[in-house]
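Anyone have tokens for Acid phosphatase (Class B)? Sequence:
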Amino acid sequence: MESRSFRWLAMIWLVAGVAGAQAPVVPTDHYGPPVCSAAAVPAHRMTAEAAKAEQEQGADDSHAILSAEPVENFAIARYRLADYADCVGTNGCYWADLDAQYRRAEVALATAVAAKKPGEKLAVVMDIDETALSSYCEMKHEDFGYVGPLFNAWIVSPEASVAIPGGLRFFNKAKAAGVSVFFITGRAGVPDYSSGKPAADQTEATARNLEAAGYRGWAGLVLRNGGENTVSTIEYKSEERHRIADKGYRIVMSVGDQWSDLLGEPKAEVSVKLPNPFYFLP
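Reply: yep, here.
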């Protein structure tokens, strides 16, 4: 009996450990951020509105000698980012804006599918980070900065399999309509050993996290391989779209959070730009 009890306890501990390693889930009954682990929650912060009120109070002091401030205070800009991501204050709600943009994409996709000619192969190209999967918890942990080693370690962890609101729904609708979905991401694939500083290959972990988030049955997954690590994002992604077109696909839509996901030739017939106030990748 003691041995059997121990085995049951071990199984309970194992299940609890696996559950604890799962990714945060974005709420489906309301718009808001995923609930991140305790390690990803920073200390209490000031809101952008509170910071603005403090600034206005100081500026109203008739005895104060004010300084020129042509550039917005960086900390206050981060407060506004956090407010937007937490759906508080007056700057709107990031998660609602993502979902709304995906709903517009679904309408445009339905129009393209309705106009499909017999024998045509339709394709959609999607980016991954902040397009299919969300890095919100790690960005919050880094206080909306960027610490390369931390970020790269996180995106290959099980916790990174967080689906963007609307993204998985759009993916499944495209597949149901017979449209092939290709993922093209700027993540590091097969290293370029000639560079002297090859990055770790993130292909396997990326595929695993996409599937864990519900993205299953894609037509292709491409990461930057070899010499592609040394070219611009626009050049790299354009070449990959060219390869898809060369396979006989009509690329009806590209979806991405960066303009570099969408620019370059060949372009998709419709480009869907998702909001991303957190970072810019040329």
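The chain is about 40% helix and 10% strand.
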